[in-house]
Amino acid sequence: MRNTGSRRARTITGAGAAFAALVAAPAQAADGLVLVPEATLLVVLLVAFTLLVFPVNALVFKPLFRVLALREERIAGARRRALELERDAADVLARYRQAIHDVREEAEQSRRVGLEEARTESGSVSTAARSQAESVLQAGREELDAWLDQARNELRGSADSLARTAAERVLGRSLS
């Protein structure tokens, strides 16, 4: 396709130059410069140009266009590879972000479970401590009640003798 377009462009350019050379009126500059050569010289130049177009095309333009096409092909391939690498990098980045998200979720879940276990254990430890404190308090109360009963009984037994001693002192005589 490229060769067809370049041939068409060369043909149009060559035809335009020939038409301009034939149509142009002879003009001369002040120093005797001739812009349009004689017809025989013009024909010789056109034939020489036409004969040189094919070798120049084969030796210069075709290799140049081939190199340019190859360069364009390499650039397009490099762009495709760059796009593929970009997609791969985006996929890797997405997987990395998902892995981080998953690990954070797992850590958060583990933290919640640990916190709940700690709360449960704390509740059971405090319940056990309360229960133990209540039993110690109850034992202390019972021991205190026992001491009080003992002290009351001892005071009752000794109260009669103390009252008798006090009455004897007040009366100044023995009560028996």
Characteristics:
176 residues, mainly alpha, 2 helices, rod-shaped
Short description:
The protein has a domain at 2-94. It is rod-shaped and about 185 Å long. Helix content is 88%, strand content 0%.
Low-confidence stretches: none
Total number of strands: 0
Major beta-sheet overview: none
> For the residues shown, what is the average pLDDT?
84
Termini, distance in Å?
Answer: 153 Å
What oligomeric state is this?
A: single chain
What is the gyration radius calculated from CA atoms? 61 Å
Global geometry = rod-shaped
Estimated structural class: mainly alpha
Our count of helices gives: 2
Note down, in words, how this protein is organized.
- It is rod-shaped, with a radius of gyration of 61 Å.
- The protein is 88% helix and 0% strand.
- The protein has two helices and no strands.
- It is mainly α and 176 residues long.
